[in-house]
Amino acid sequence: AQAIWLKASAQTEVQTIIAIIRIPCHRTAPLSMAACVKRALALLALAVSVRGESASSACSAGDRCEIAGSKLLQARASRQRSLLAVETEEDLEEDLEELAEEEAQESELQGASIEEYNGATITIHADSEVARTGSGVWVIIVPENCTTYDVDQMADHMPKGTTPVFRGDPSHGGLCVFAMTGTKEQVLEELDTHQWPSPPKIDSDKKWRYIDEIGLVETDEGNAGLLQQGGKPKSWGVDRVDDRKGLDNDYSPLLTGDGVSVYVADTGIRTTHWDFKGRAIPTLEVLSPWRRVCDARDTQCAVDREGHGTHCAGTIGGYWFGVAKGATLHAVKVIQDNRLGELSWFVEALDWVMTSGLRPAVVSASLAGEGRSPTVDMTVDRATQSGVTVVVAAGNDGDTSKPSACSYTPANAPAAITVGATGYYDGRASFSNYGTCVDIFAPGVSISSDTPEDDWAWNRKSGTSMACPHVAG
């Protein structure tokens, strides 16, 4: 992925620093005052160290104006290094324990019930079928030292009245994962049946959705529309990300993404759209417990009837609108036409990409569910270890009572690259989630890209769903 370095303009520098100071204290479950102050000071030092230069003089030429480049990169790794530099090993261990306790409290406050059973961790999500009816789909994942034989044993010794849903293939590079239907008591019986190579994590399945685009454009974002001049970038977002100069009416990346496969986990893609130049391929549908591998010639498989996935794919690799104009785009449909999906479908799709997908590979997922999922955390971690980079959207709740990306999955998955949204002048878009789970910001306001109404359709959308594919590209 192209590196995106963003700098706050002079008018937003103070707000940026204040926001960074508030991040470690703005939690559902409060930190101790000492830890809060310590983290605030460390983050403030980081903010000051990357503080941008003053904005250049005003320009009245609209899209033809050049806007200076950036230095502000919000990254978990950078902050961790800053904290490590000032903390002893004992201090760090205490902070990590405190953070783990805080996250558990946050999950419970969001309605999840977390239980321990013989070393296994069981999470029942408040918005799951299990929580509503007492029975439903469960996803069991084993962290370490697991083989396909272990997964097969889970399927061969199931309690009476339960049914298998899907299984992973860890011996061939996939996840040690098994999904089944049943009650909590039947899951406990299943756990008692096996000698586990490492303590499993269990999630009740839950609804997911794609992250809705925002129906407004920030009033201070300038003219961020389609650039009409011949040879110029057709979307301001791609102009913004190709170098550190900022907006200069040029898009000249060093690499095109040729030979890289990008799996767009979304509502599907209109693969026949002219902007993809034959590089978009129907690949996979997971819209029920049974996945469907597409024939690459079947343009109705993993097809987008909603618009979200095609717009994201256009930003990733469209000929006119895209960042990586040589990448191969794979349609992976995990969201139904009613805009809903299941947590388990995303897990199953990533297992398929890990075992059957091409390399090098990127997964772009502008999806969200409330709370934290140990299964999703582990899935993203294993995918990353297998050579699949996972890029996700931070969410569009920045101006609500729950603005932290840490309140949503997969945005809070530690191994994911979580992307917030900025506007035309590099300020954080008001709708963008923020917080310690956000790794990087990218253009997300009034982004021009493809839509599936026909093979020539396009429009402008705003949201972190539009920022995420800039980073994936």
From TrEMBL:
Positions of the Peptidase S8/S53 domain: 257-473
A GO term, aspect molecular function: serine-type endopeptidase activity
Gene Ontology annotations of biological process type: proteolysis
E.C. code: 3.4.21.62
Active site, UniProt feature: 266 (charge relay system), 308 (charge relay system), 465 (charge relay system)
Keywords, comma-separated and alphabetical: Coiled coil, Hydrolase, Protease, Serine protease
GO terms under cellular component: extracellular space
InterPro entries, alphabetized: PCSK9_ProteinaseK-like (IPR034193), Peptidase_S8/S53_dom (IPR000209), Peptidase_S8/S53_dom_sf (IPR036852), Peptidase_S8_His-AS (IPR022398), Peptidase_S8_Ser-AS (IPR023828), Peptidase_S8_subtilisin-like (IPR050131), Peptidase_S8_subtilisin-rel (IPR015500)
Transmembrane segments: none
Catalytic activity: Hydrolysis of proteins with broad specificity for peptide bonds, and a preference for a large uncharged residue in P1. Hydrolyzes peptide amides
Chain coiled-coil ranges: 82-112
Pfam family, one: Peptidase_S8
The family this protein is said to belong to: Belongs to the peptidase S8 family.
Protein name: subtilisin
Organism annotation: Alexandrium monilatum
Lineage: Eukaryota, Sar, Alveolata, Dinophyceae, Gonyaulacales
